[in-house]
Design brief:
The structure is a homodimer of 686-residue chains. The first copy, chain A, is α/β, with parallel strands linked by helices. Chain A has 25 helices and 30 strands. The longest helix of chain A has 20 residues.
Chain lengths: 686, 686
């Protein structure tokens, strides 16, 4: 495969290996020598030999073929060295050196030059500004992480955009016996990026799960494509750093202001089937356990010798949206025969504080037949035997390897050995209730999202409508497009004069609304350009005159007065919904469905979806607060109509990349209709 | 003080000490013997001596005075033993034995007998069904926790309602060098409860912070009173187990359905100044660090040698509602003189991966002048020196002991010693960014909530109005009470007949609303008993006839037809708010302020407050989504009017304990008014 030579090179040259043990170039060579079985070459024009290996003046002086060159020399010399590598037909270079775009200024210039060179060259590059790469099987450590840090062999690959975080996590993993298949510090990803690596790891048999730390993505489309393909085969876990970065500049649209920077990332990652976490400790637990079990249901069994431990774990389950499995009559009856009378036979199944390993065994024998993810809590108490209990759990695992078993050993000194025993045997083992619940939640999310279907989406036939306008469109100017793509809008027309007004009201009827339509929406709101609840001709004519006055007074150009039906007319019960579109700079269009009207700004309850709606996402939408709100005022047919609007809005934004934001707010949703009452299309960046 | 003899007894008798090393009665004696310097007596009629101590047949045979009797005998014999203790004038008994109310049935009977006895007796009792009590200075361990578990001396007291959780946490603390002043397993708290212990610990000089694990409270008022007094003197941290318990039975009122079981606990605890946590690991960190620093601001400084670590920590700060402190020009300028050019001089202050201890020192010397809580991140990298960096942090602490310093050492083997060093020196030290942020958030919450003022509350003069009705009140029947207590309601009247109708509409004007008022509110909604938006006499008379038909058809007794003004009339811009009251069975009345109308059920955005509103809480309310929603449609005067409504509603519920729930939904809030448009008072349990 493409990157085989990178991860499993036959020969490595260290360009910039150093005699000074405190230098990066020395640590890299030391790390390679530690376990690598292939040929090692050293390039340093100022040394005869380094760490017992002959040093060449230039890579061109080496006679053997070189698969990977690890480059750790001052930034200004990197390009020249790379050119020599090209001449030498080196396949891959790992550029450790910093001093590129991350420092700006001259660094950015270097980065540009490097990029230019790589466009024309066959050599593929990891970095610059990275820690390097580690493979554990066969073992090669081409990084400068502390040589005292043991990197264990495991089945999880770790890709990190932060070198410092990577070394901390690898160090932590070393203390906790967590292993890796491969570790990649991706650096500036000037050439090879996360998606390229993920494409490779997807097919890598030694990698069962992939964990990423990401601060930003440059090519959203490429990354998502790779992610979607990868999650079909193995779990991918992502921690996104920089969630607190604010959205840039002023925001004019509701939808734009609701979509934070992070929302797009989270949404895109989750829609592509990734498990998204927010804590380093979760990242850590997934590194160890992401590939251990398939969690096929959100109904969880808790078995415990600690009432309090069971209670707290049940709390976390509830807060995570998971369920306690119902224990069938049959199972309760079986448990009642083996457990003391005071036990709780329902979930959490409390075997009491004096539960022996034997009692754990008998209980697990019974509840394992439920075939549900099972949390086994142990808390050290009088007579309790942690190691023997751990062995019972391990035996259960051997008997039923597919059963997702999650031992939770509360306590310290008394249970530490038991936890270690389980981890060494390849089972998970946790310290705290929230940890184990986070894992189960993530694994269930993965199981239920890794293979989305798009039946409903494919069914929808949407007309392609071009938005051939170069400026923001409001009022009738915007309405016409939604009419074309098949989103119902309230009746409305432009009024030429008073005569026209009288003609049009006869078609619309009272109550009605008069609005000024101008290119400056902010202005319109301030100057009182909307008059609602007009009930008769007298009010209508006065309103028309007032608005004309306002247009004159404010010297509005290209301003129209428009008349609209009252969209709530005839509806005893309705809700105001916001339907919107927002184009994220990295991931493209997102569609928003939220509480609308005056509530949109302050309450901000909103769900974002990608334009391509999976059947699973549609079901999930129904279960959100917004879904329930819509259904409380309407019915499944109207809900389906809104799904159709979402798909249509998405297509409209996809075929019109000039559109930045769309607000349909409010969308009046009632028993018999879903009608947009106000419409805005923004082409200016929000 | 009251419990001095309990925690620092001159003599202890172990009733039920056992020769069998596997019995609880043996472990207790072993634990006492381990460190206790006072007199130990043993009572066991079947033994001559146990663990080298002479055994008495009865406590009455002992000649010395006994301060504490620890009782570990079968439940059915406990009362007799206790009677002997009374005769012997023993001050305190700790009843370890289980088999009381926690097992129901005969156990409940035993509990009742015990309770009866204790009412008449001077002896004070901890338990039954508990693990016992530990004091570390002077040292005495009257529990059966594993004798291998070392309990270190510290300044935090721990009270737990779960024995199993207590032993797990003490075990974990032992592994992590976390010490305690006192540990109390409270058991069934038949006599001495959490509040009694807290009253004692409040004055205990060796206790600087108190941590509680609670599953339920029986006397809410007593507990809150003790808690409020205690948080004035020292931080109290509470983990509540059983958060997932659903509200009981069917709920008729909006407010009732919005108030979960846990909400009342959380609200009451936080209003009393407690730090409420939801994870065991947070509980753990607070045990160690709750009393270390005062955090007087929510503006936090981050100093880091790891870009990624800084980014993730900033994310957690943001998500926790804390702020990154602004770094002044002056400070930036000072930092620029000592840090490399590529450093980030703003917050997080990134000193780069090669930061030496010296660089940490110089940076801390500068930023310590900001006098803000400071997170110091260390991540192991090339050349980095964990221990020396830890020493630099410790030196800073010695120089400025009041400065809240939170070292965060990412990594494992390479930094573990540095973490231990800091902890041994009495500083905190964390593994993960979210932990350190949780601590800072909690300590800032404590600092800003421990001394609430009630100026605004005291200013409000509220009339006492009795709700002398024995059934639910809706419509005009309810409205009259709100009119009396000073909450504005929409104009409305009962209609006798068509003539009356015509008279009343002339006062109210169109549009108006007609409603059936009946005792069965659920019924009213189903049968279409509300007709809104009546615009003229024709519609009015038809509506009146329709409603009369409905009353006849459904054979409604005591049903009225009522007419109301349209509460939204004349308001161009308004929001629908829910103002409600709910009586929690433990903590009494809570007042709800949330999104109203049709949105109340599904969106459920709501803030609960206690009737006695602190000035701080009022400020916080302004900053919530609901507060902002109200202010978006009104102004500070109207907001203040709603505060007045909250206080009035609270008083009304306090003086009328028969009222269970109140719904004022919607409360129409506009630029010039806040008027309730519908009113319900429930006396039946929801």
């Amino acid at each position: 495969m493409l990157f085989d030579k990178l991860f499993n090179p036959k020969s490595i040259a260290v360009i910039g290996a150093s005699r000074n043990p405190n230098k990066v170039g020395s640590a890299i060579l030391r790390n390679i020598k530690l376990t690598y079985k292939g040929k090692i070459f050293v390039v340093n024009p100022f040394a005869d030999q380094i760490q017992g290996i002959k040093s060449y003046k230039s890579i061109l002086d080496i006679e053997d073929n070189i698969d990977v060159a690890v480059i750790s020399i001052p930034a200004e010399k990197v390009l020249d060295a790379l050119k020599e590598c090209e001449k030498k037909k080196v396949s891959f270079a790992i550029i450790i050196s910093a001093g590129f775009k991350e420092i700006g200024g001259i660094g950015q210039e270097r980065e540009n030059e490097l990029k230019e060179f790589l466009k024309r060259s066959k050599i593929r590059v990891v970095g610059p500004n990275c820690l390097g790469i580690i493979n554990t099987d066969p073992s090669v450590n081409m990084t400068f992480v502390d040589p005292n840090t043991t990197v264990f062999k495991g089945s999880t690959a770790f890709i990190s955009q932060s070198g410092a975080l990577l070394s901390a996590i690898v160090d932590d993993a070393s203390m906790n016996n967590i292993g890796f298949s491969k570790i990649i510090s991706i650096g500036n990803s000037t050439d090879i990026d996360e998606a390229d690596i993920m494409d490779y790891l997807r097919e890598d048999e030694k990698t069962k799960a992939i964990v990423l730390y990401i601060e930003g993505i440059t090519n959203g489309e490429k990354f998502l494509k790779s992610l979607k393909e990868t999650t079909k085969k193995k779990p991918v876990v992502i921690l996104k750093g920089g969630r607190s970065n604010e959205t840039s500049s002023a925001v004019m649209s509701h939808t734009g202001s609701l979509a934070g920077n992070y929302k797009a990332y989270q949404l895109a990652f989750e829609e592509a089937g990734a498990i998204v976490v927010s804590n380093v400790d979760d990242l850590f637990n997934f590194m160890r356990d992401a590939a251990k079990f398939e969690v096929k249901t959100n109904e969880v069994v808790i078995v415990t010798n600690s009432g309090g431990g069971g209670v707290i774990t049940a709390d976390h389950l509830y807060e995570a949206g998971l369920k306690r499995a119902e224990i069938s009559e049959e199972t309760v009856s079986a448990l009642s025969k083996i457990l003391p009378a005071e036990s709780n036979l329902h979930n959490p199944i409390d075997m009491l504080g004096d539960a022996s390993p034997e009692r754990y065994k008998e209980t697990l024998d019974i509840v394992s037949n439920l075939n549900k993810p099972t949390i086994v809590i142990f808390s050290p108490q009088e007579m309790s035997m942690p190691i023997d209990t751990a062995k019972v759990i391990y035996d259960m695992h051997l008997k039923k390897p597919e059963l997702p078993l999650f031992p939770l050993f509360l306590g310290g000194t008394n249970v530490e050995k038991a936890r270690r025993f389980l981890i060494e045997k390849g089972l998970p083992a946790y310290y705290y209730p929230n940890e184990v619940v986070d894992i189960i939640k993530g694994l269930y999310f993965y199981y239920s999202h890794r293979n989305p279907t798009y039946k409903r989406y494919s069914k929808e036939r949407v007309k392609i409508v071009k938005f051939n306008v170069n400026k923001n469109a409001f009022g009738i100017n915007a309405k016409q497009f939604f009419d074309k793509i098949g989103i119902e809008t309230v009746n409305g027309m432009i009024i030429k004069d008073e005569k026209d007004l009288k003609e049009k009201i006869s078609k619309l009827g009272y109550p009605c609304v008069l609005k000024i339509s101008s290119n400056n929406v902010a202005h319109k709101n301030k100057i009182g350009g909307v008059i609602t609840g007009i009930k008769n001709e007298e009010e209508l004519i006065k309103a028309f005159k007032d608005l004309n006055e306002i247009i004159k007074k404010n010297k509005l150009e290209n301003a129209n007065i428009e008349i609209y039906e009252d969209a709530t007319k005839g509806n005893k019960k309705y809700v105001e919904i916001l339907l919107g579109g927002h184009r994220d700079p990295i991931f493209g269009p997102m569609i928003a469905l939220g509480i609308g009207g005056i509530y949109a700004n302050e309450i901000g309850e909103v769900e974002f979806v990608l334009p391509q709606l999976s059947d699973q996402k549609i079901e999930e939408l129904k279960d959100t607060k917004i879904g329930k709100l819509i259904l409380s005022a309407s019915n499944p047919e109207i809900f389906d109509k809104i799904i159709s609007y979402i798909i249509r809005l998405g297509k409209f934004m996809q075929v019109n990349p000039n559109i930045k934001d769309i607000d349909l707010n409010p969308l009046i949703v009632s028993q018999s209709s879903a009608v947009a009452a106000d419409f805005k299309i923004f082409v200016e960046a929000n």
